[in-house]
Structure formats: structure tokens, C-alpha cells
Q: What sequence folds into this?
DNA sequence: ATAAATATTTAGACAAACCTAAAACATTTA
DNA sequence: TAAATGTTTTAGGTTTGTCTAAATATTTAT
């Protein structure tokens, strides 16, 4: 597959919402930042190659073969993201653009060895799951910390309240996007939480807990 | 620069023998595995961009600007080669193809951090020097071990005699291409050598020493 | 010095991936 | 259910990087 073909396949995969829903020409165009007419051309070519099912005016989705390719690309993209953050000191929000390039490097050995070098990570820095070599992975969902059971851990991926006071609080307590958080304990009395973050235990109120989104494996 | 343009620039650089000699259309074609007519086209384009000096029928070489680009590419290529060998366990002869792709990834931060991650290496797994961020590097030369002064170290890059008995000897003594060898001592009496390889000292005869090529910095 | 051999460029085409403008189809709205 | 609106495809072009075949320049050999 060429670099362009791969980017289209990934777009169709991501728009397919995990269940390979048929997606529109326009939505693909928006995702790959091109014009709908270009998508029509490409999608015909991918259809000829057996990568997608395409019915004119009706939309497009991935074949089995296409899904396999998509999962390999997602695996590569996310492993590179882990590498950039863990080994090269990139931050959460700097990795995407570079991974977007690195995902197209062709070498099976490279990816296998990278996976090993990173200690076979299960999730990327954004909390998204990394498919195994055979394409399996756990789905993840985004939940408010307050709705997550004790003993579970997840990755901080967003805030509900983004007011300066709240952000300042997070900053002061060194809670940042991309951090792994373990729910240690929940206090019956006031609904407050004990959480572990960066190897330290801290205590947060019910209010804080209801404004932090984590991504956890189902 | 596009991937293709970069590969042409590298080819012109490598054919230029370090002193930026003017090179022929045919030689470039051979190196980038294309036809001479394609080289003519590309070289005109690179000339318009100020990357090369081109005189029809006379040949092509790099401008100052072109040399800068070439050195950046060589730097990237060789840093990735070190990464593949040192961090991912690739062997000497497996890295080139992958580095040929990785060298085109665009991110200055990526290369700076990779350099740091690798501990600012001076040479790649083939004994070739890695240009600094500003483009400086020591030239290296290939010499028979026998002609190298005591105290110098280099990287094993080839053999003069490739007969089975000699190769078997190297194998038995765990001397492989890509290994770093330090000349510890030379025996006046029989011209034999003490060398250090893989943190072990071994003794080799004058005959062995006159059939092993090392790459050393000038 | 001339002819033969070789190297290089030009001319004309092609595939990939994109574009704009116009036509065809589908959906919504009145 | 017909018009209006929005979506998708088609038609026709462009750019990049490649190719073959033919023309031209340069080098080598007689
Ligand atoms: Mn990409
Ligand atoms: Mn990610
Ligand atoms: Mn390359
Ligand atoms: Mn090398």
C-alpha cells in the first residue's frame, strides 16, 4: 500500500466506529483533508484492490483484508507514540504528527522489535489500546473518574470543567493529560477519592472526581 | 524536499566522494535505480530549487545549500542505523533498508532526541561518521589492521582474504563485521598484535592482521 | 581528423494523487 | 409529490516522478 492509500484506510477505519459502519465520501474527505471527488477516485481503486466494499452513492467500509491492514497501521501508529513519549521525552500532544509519518515505515521486524523494546505496551499515551500483532485489543471507554470502580486504573484524557480554577488545581497537584491514575479508595462519607498518580497517593474531593475524564479498558 | 528529491541529493552527495566532485547523469541513475532521462528531469528541478549546480552534458554537484541538506540526511540515516542496532537488536547488514525509509521522517525534535537517546554516537554500525547537527564530522578511512598504530580503535568493516579457513577463524574468535576493535599492542618480534574486542583481549598473528580491514577516524 | 561508440538530453506517454466545475443522484421541505 | 438542497460522481486538468525511443553531444578509436 502507498502512504496515501494507508491514510485513507485508516480514515475509513476510524470513522467506522469500531464496528466497521459504512461511511460517507464527505466524511472521509474531511478526515484525510482532501476533496470528495478525490475520495471517489481512491475508493474505487481500493475497491479494485479488495480493501474496501464500495457502493456508489451508498458509502464505503473495510473488507476483512482492509480491517487487517487498518489494525496493523493503528498498531504501528500507537507503538511509535509510546516510543516518542517513553524513550524520547515527547509530550502527550506532540506525538501525533510524527507518528502519522512513522506509521508508514515498512518493516515487520522493526515493529516487532519496537514492541519488545517498549515492553509490549497495552495502551498508547492517549489511553487508546494497541492492537497485538494478530489484531486483538481491548476496547476502551472514556468515563468520569467518579464513575470508575475502586481498583481500576486509567489514563487521564480530559476535563469536564475547564475553568481556570480547576485547571490551576490540576497543575498544582501535578495531574496532567496522559498520566496514569489508579483509583485506590473511595470514601463513603463524602464521596471523595484516594488516587495514585506518578507513584504518589493523593486525595481528591467528589467535585474534582466528577470533572476528570479517564480512559479505561472494558 | 520530497522523498525522491532527498534520495537524489544523497546519491549526488555520496558519488561526490566527500569533496563534492561533479558526477555524471548515468552514475546518479545507477545509484537511485532509475533511468538517465529521469535524472536529467530531476536534476533540472533541483537546479531550479538551488540545490545543485547543473551544466548539461557536463554533470552535476551540490550547492552549499544542497550539501547542508545532504549532511542532514546522512545524519538521520546513520542515527537511525545506530538505533536499530543498539536498541532494537538489528544486525549490521539488516539496517540499511529500514534506515533508507526512516531518514525521510520530518521532525527536528525527533532527531535531536534520538541523538540524545543514543548518547550522541560518533559513528554508525558500519564505521561511518555521523555528522553533528551543524554538519561537522571526522572523515574515516579504511585500513588494514596491520597498518594501524597502537592505541587506535576502529570498526571491523571487511576482509581482504575471504577464504573459508580465514572466515572460520574469525567466527571461532567471535570477530564480526561491525565490531569495534582497539589495537592494544604490537609485538616487534613477529609482527603479531594484541587487540581488544567485545571487552576481551585477544592475540592475533601478523597474517590475520594483514587481512582485516578496519574503519578509523583520521 | 573522422568514424564509431557512448553518454546525455529531448519528446512524448503514463500512473498516482490531487484539483475545479458540471452533472447526476438522494434527501428534505413545502 | 415536486422543488429545493445537499451529496456524490464524472469529466477534464495539473503536478510529480517515472518510462521508451529518438535526437544530439561528447569521447574514444582508427
Ligand atoms: Mn499517516
Ligand atoms: Mn494516540
Ligand atoms: Mn531513502
Ligand atoms: Mn551506514
A:
Amino acid at each position: 500500500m502507498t502512504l496515501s492509500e494507508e491514510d485513507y484506510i485508516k480514515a475509513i477505519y476510524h470513522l467506522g466506529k469500531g464496528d466497521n459502519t459504512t461511511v460517507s465520501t464527505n466524511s472521509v474527505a474531511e478526515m484525510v483533508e482532501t476533496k470528495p471527488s478525490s475520495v471517489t477516485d481512491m475508493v474505487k481503486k481500493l475497491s479494485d484492490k479488495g480493501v474496501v466494499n464500495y457502493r456508489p452513492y451508498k458509502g464505503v467500509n473495510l473488507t476483512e483484508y482492509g480491517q487487517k491492514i487498518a489494525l496493523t497501521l493503528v498498531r504501528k501508529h500507537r507503538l511509535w507514540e509510546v516510543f516518542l513519549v517513553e524513550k524520547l521525552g515527547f509530550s502527550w500532544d506532540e506525538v501525533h504528527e510524527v507518528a502519522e509519518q512513522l506509521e508508514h515505515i515498512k518493516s515487520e521486524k522493526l515493529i516487532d522489535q519496537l514492541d519488545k523494546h517498549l515492553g509490549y505496551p497495552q495502551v498508547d499515551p492517549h489511553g487508546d489500546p494497541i492492537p497485538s500483532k494478530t489484531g486483538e485489543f481491548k476496547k476502551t471507554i472514556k468515563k468520569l473518574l467518579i464513575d470508575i470502580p475502586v481498583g481500576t486504573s486509567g489514563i487521564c484524557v480530559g476535563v469536564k470543567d475547564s475553568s481556570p480554577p480547576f485547571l490551576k488545581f490540576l497543575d498544582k497537584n501535578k495531574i496532567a493529560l496522559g498520566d496514569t491514575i489508579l483509583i485506590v479508595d473511595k470514601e463513603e462519607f463524602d464521596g471523595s477519592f484516594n488516587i495514585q498518580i506518578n507513584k504518589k497517593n493523593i486525595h481528591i474531593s467528589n467535585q474534582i472526581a466528577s470533572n476528570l475524564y479517564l480512559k479505561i479498558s472494558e
Q: What stands out?
A: The two ends of chain A are 32 Å apart (CA to CA). The first helix of chain A runs from residue 3 to 15.
